[in-house]
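Reminder to self: tokens first, then the designed residues, so the page reads top to bottom the way the pipeline ran.
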């Protein structure tokens, strides 16, 4: 029997850029200044993965066209960027949020990030194809992750036990 896989938690926070900035100016700030500094803080506190998903107007237009072709049932997210964190426990994120260097970095966001209509999601990731290969399935094709009930409890104590 395959060992039970530990799920990674994913928290994603979607932001819009300040209306005074172009998409290019926002991307420049995010990648050249903010991300480089934030990455060191996140790694220091044990975050497994940290990245930004950029969603420019051209991509949203393409998604809207695809949506029309597929029957128009999607709601197209209009946020400029979604920051993604992958971690093994919420303690890791709590440590980042308490870090004085991270707090100072967040205070510097104000002229770049709008601060309005921020959307956050928290859940876990189950990976079934990685590097073009099927993964995390036993020989019979059943997932090797733990049951839903154990994973769906996001109390601090339960998440830390995963």
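Designed residues (162 positions):
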């Amino acid at each position: 029997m395959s060992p039970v896989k530990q799920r990674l938690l994913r928290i994603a926070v979607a932001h819009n850029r300040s209306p005074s900035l172009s998409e290019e100016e926002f991307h420049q700030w995010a990648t050249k200044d903010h991300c480089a500094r934030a990455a060191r803080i996140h790694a220091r506190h044990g975050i497994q993965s940290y990245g930004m998903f950029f969603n420019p107007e051209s991509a949203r237009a393409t998604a809207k066209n695809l949506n029309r072709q597929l029957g128009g049932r999607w709601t197209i997210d209009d946020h400029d960027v979604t920051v993604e964190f992958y971690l093994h426990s919420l303690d890791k994120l709590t440590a980042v949020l308490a870090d004085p260097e991270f707090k100072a970095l967040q205070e510097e966001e104000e002229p770049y990030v709008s601060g309005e209509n921020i959307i956050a999601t928290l859940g876990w990731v189950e990976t079934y194809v990685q590097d073009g290969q099927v993964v995390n399935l036993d020989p019979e094709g059943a997932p090797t992750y733990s049951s839903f009930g154990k994973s769906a409890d996001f109390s601090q104590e339960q998440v830390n036990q995963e």
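Residues 23-44 form the longest helix (22 residues).
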